[in-house]
Each structure stands twice: as structure tokens, then as C-alpha cells.
Amino acid sequence: MKSSGNKNDKANSNGKKEKGKINFFLVFLICWLIVVTGFIAWFLLRFNDFAANYEAQYQDSLPYHTAEAVTARFNDHDVDYIWNNMSSKPSVTEFEDDSVVKDYIASLLEGKSFIYTETDTSREDEPEYYVKTEEGLLVARFELEEDKSVNLPFGFKAWKGESLEFYTAASFSANISAPETYTVFVNGVALNDSYLNGEVTPSELNQYVDPYAVIPGTANYLVKGLYKKPVVTAKDYLGNYCSCIYDEKSDTYTVGFIKDFEGKDELSEYAINFTSTFANYISQDAGANALDKYFPSGSQALSYIKRNSSRELYTKHGTVTIHNEEIRDCIVFSDDVVYMEIYVEQWMQMYWGSSEPEVIPTDAHVYFVKINDKWVVGGIQY
To answer: Residue 178: which H helix or E strand, with range?
Structure first.
């Protein structure tokens, strides 16, 4: 009885001891899990920040950002940027300078918006883009290269413009026709023979002054490669500025002979006297040799006039007077050759019909030449 009671007391004593014992492994395991979970959470947060930063840096390093910046210059109409970054400047003729090309570029940019597209030949290591209007008209092409002066995180590349080609077209030209003795200027620069478009064309009018003088031929000039419509001027053989007429349909500038000269009044009076005498000669109201003083010796033109048989058949009439004399045109070919169109009227009293005189107009086209400082008739154009 006594011994059994001792066993129970011992069992109770052991039970109390086991119930108060701490399990360190379990505590360690829990702490380890907490630490690992915290580390994983920290790592994931850091990795997420790294991945986000990596992606942001990658996106920022893509070359299209630089392409957008270049295109923005076009939308800002920044001609100086375009000009300074062109890999090869457009060539200009001696008649223009760089400022004309810049104005040309500005005119192409004005009032337009631009976008960029990647070219078919663009590569990852050499990006290449077109600049075009929103309507699709190509105006430029540019390439990018790595900007090694900029160090980006993660070894990404920075980009900068390598070359820019603006599509320019020198589409203006000048076709000019002028007397060979005149000086022609394009934008204030005198043309020399290197701009002749073919040989000088002899004047067909020489038939009226040969063999006493020569009418200057026609020089045809061609100037190409201009970025702006040119200003064409000319000086006559005396060195005075003269008119230059532009024909839009034929796109040709024509420099005509001058119409005035010193001594025109004296020659005009001489021309009217000749034409009046000529009209009276034809109507047999002037003597057989009345025209001789107006022609050089041996003149073939005078010979033709005297052989005109119609003079002999002219209707008989009474008194003749000259009225309404007029110089209708004058062309000065040189100091020694002048053309005049002279109009006079013969008021001829007829033997029949009305008492009012018959008006006979004469419109003469005469080429005067100066021989030994004296004007004579070189020829008549009928």
C-alpha cells in the first residue's frame, strides 16, 4: 500500500517537469520562417524596383526618343538646326548663296506638320528614319549613332544624330533671249559665254542692210540649278539698263532692242521726208531721180523701186499733199542701224468722183544705215 502511493507521487512529479519544458527547435523554425519570409518579401520588393528601373531605363534608351526630338525641330520650323546638321550642304550657283537655300527650306516647312517613320534599311545598331509631312511627302532622312559621351545604366546606349539629309531641289531656271551685243544679268551677276545655249543666231533682217551693216544676232542663255525665281536684267550696247519681258507660258525672258537714241528726232524727220518722197515717186508726183539722195550708191533696193512697172500705170490725178505723218515704231540695232515704221497719207485730188481728196496711206518699213556719218536707206521691208 505504501509503495504504490510513492509511484503515483513520482508520476505526478515527472508530469509537472515535462509540461514546463521549452521547444527551442520549434522557436527556431518559426523565427527562421519569419526571417526567410521577410527576406523574400524584401527581395521581391527590391527586384520589382530593379525590374521597373531596368524597364524604364531601357525604354528611355530606345532611339525613337531621339527621332522624336529631331522631328520636333522640323515642327518648330528650326531652319538653323536643319542647316547646321545637314551632312552635306546643297550646292549653289554663282547667282545665289546659302541664305537663298535657307529661305527655300523655310518655305517648304511653312504651314506643315511632320512625323517620322523608320526606313526599310534601318538597323538596330544604325537606326534610320524619314521625316515626312502628315500627307506623306518625304522631306528628309536622318541617321542616329551611339553617343559614347553619355553613360546610361545597365550598359544601354544613348543616341545622337549622325547625319541629316534634307531633300532639296533646285528647280528654277532662266531661259533668256537677248541681242548678242547686250549684257544680261541674273540676280545681278553678268552672264558670260559659258551660259550660251547654242550658237548665236544671226539676224534674218540682215538681208535689208547687207552689205552696208550687220544687225546683231540673238544670244540664247540658259541658267539652271536655282532655288528661287531669278531676277533677270539687261544693259544695252551703250551700257544703259533696258527692258526685259518675262513670258510665263514659255518661261522665257526676252530682252528687246532699245527704242530710243540720241538723234532720233533728226532721223525721224529724215524718215518722214523719205517716205513722203517715196509715196510721191510711186504716184509719179516726184521726179525720176527724187529718191537717189536717200540711198547709197549702187543700192539694189533703189534699183528694185525704179524697176517697179506699176508706177507707170498709176491713175492720173491732180494735186497731192502729204498729211498725218507718224513714226509708228523705232528699233535701234546699233549706232549704225535703225529700223523705223513710217506712216504718211497722200491726199490726192482725183479728176473724177467726189470733190473730196482720195486718201492714199503709205506704211513704210525702212532700215536706215549710217555710212560716213550720214543716214541712208539700207533696205525696205515690204
So the answer is: strand 172-179
Residues 337-369: pLDDT tens digits? 999 999 999 999 988 777 889 999 999 999 999
Whether the CB-CB separation of 332 and 338 falls below 8 Å is answered with yes
Distance CA 52, CA 57 (A): 9
| Whole-angstrom distance, CA of residue 315 vs CA of residue 180 | 47
CB atoms within 10 A of CB 2: 5
- Span 112-159, pLDDT tens digits: 999 999 999 988 888 999 999 999 999 999 999 877 777 776 666 777
Query: What single letter denotes the amino acid at residue 189?
Result: V
A 10 A CB-CB count for 318 gives: 9
Q: How far is CA 113 from CA 52, 108, 110, 116, in A?
A: 34, 11, 9, 11
Q: How confident is the model at residue 271 (pLDDT cuts 50, 70, 90)?
A: very high
The cell numbers describing 368, all together, are 536706215
Q: Quick check: 87 pLDDT over 70?
A: yes
**More confident: 94 or 1:** 94
Residue 1 has pLDDT above 50, yes or no: no
Q: In this structure, are residues 297 and 271 in contact, taking their beta carbons and an 8 Å threshold?
A: no
H or E stretch covering 370: strand 358-371
What's the pLDDT score for residue 153? 66
Three-state DSSP state, 280: helix
Q: Are 64 and 142 in contact (CB under 8 A)?
A: no
Q: What is the pTM of this model?
A: 0.77
224, 234, 233, 160: which is closest to 194 by C-alpha? 224
Q: Which residues, including other chains, have CB under 8 Å from residue 238's CB and lie 6 or more apart?
A: 258
Residue 190 one-letter amino acid: A
337-350 and 358-371 beta bridge pairing: antiparallel
